[in-house]
Amino acid sequence: RTVPAARRPVVKFCHKQSGLAGDISVDNRLALLNTRFLQLCAEADERVRPLVYAARLWAKRQGLAGNPSGGGPLLNNYALTLLVVFFLQMRSPPVLPTVARLRDMAGDEDRAVVGGWDCSFPRNAAALEPSANTETPCSLLADFFRVFGDFDFAGQVISLREGQAWPLPIPDVPEGFKLGPLNLQDPFELSHNVAANVNEKTAERFQRCCRAAAKYCRSLQYRRKSSKGRAWGLTRLFQPGAVEPGAANAGAFLISVPLDEAGGSWRFHRVGGGRGPWFWEVCSAVAFVLRDVLKCDCTAGKAPG
């Protein structure tokens, strides 16, 4: 599927056998260097990859992030990943170095300038010093939610190059940088706000969800297995809408009812009145979910007409 209106035109595709999605773009060297930069971050510390995956899965389940083809208001995965990298730069001591520090560490073979932007950084993670930070991934994830739940996104510009958030107005914002409710500067192309598509409603909801997740991470349910068989820890955090404000007890999630593709659906539709064996199997499955999983009271009702 072509997306000619994108900032850099791409062709989106999906590999049917695996379900993996991807983009094809031509002559976009900055994208290649961005990918190598994120790869360097992942190789620099073993906590980076699981933390990024956790934040992205959480945001996806909350309906906050994705790759909308129409350039919608959701956070894209690249922007969310950069938020995690920036968060790790801010730790004391830092988990990841700033982009400016990486530029100073780059050797002659690592020098790169694309479109006038300095994209120099070491290509080998072995050149980086190990972080002195000893926080666990779970504690980092909890603090990620706490930090960004109260972050002034609209009043600051997040800079991965310096590992700081600069209060607005700042005199040296590059020409063409689009200010908005969430200002996240690309680590190399400094005139690009990678979250420029995010509207005020999405930014506010992102922070509400962060605050709700931070509150949940302080609870016993996050740290201790439930004695009643309920979802706990990361499992509940990753359930769709499970930690949305006002949905603390809702825990919305999907339970599939498997039917035999070899003949189940055919038999279901062919039996007169639609109430053959498969109809009652589905009824039993729904009743099981209501009664035994959701603990609802179930009583026999009048048969459908």
From TrEMBL:
Residues 2-40 form the Poly(A) RNA polymerase mitochondrial-like central palm domain. GO terms for cellular component: nuclear speck. Keywords: Magnesium, Metal-binding, Transferase. It comes from the Eukaryota. GO terms for molecular function: metal ion binding; poly(A) RNA polymerase activity. GO terms for biological process: RNA 3'-end processing. InterPro entries: MTPAP-like_central (IPR054708), NT_sf (IPR043519), PAP_assoc (IPR002058). Pfam families: MTPAP-like_central, PAP_assoc. Its cofactor is Mg(2+); Mn(2+). Residues 138-192 form the PAP-associated domain. Coiled coil: none annotated. The keyword Transcription regulation does not apply. The keyword Transferase applies. Signal peptide: none annotated. This is STPAP polymerase. The lineage of its organism: Eukaryota, Metazoa, Chordata, Craniata, Vertebrata. The gene is Tut1.
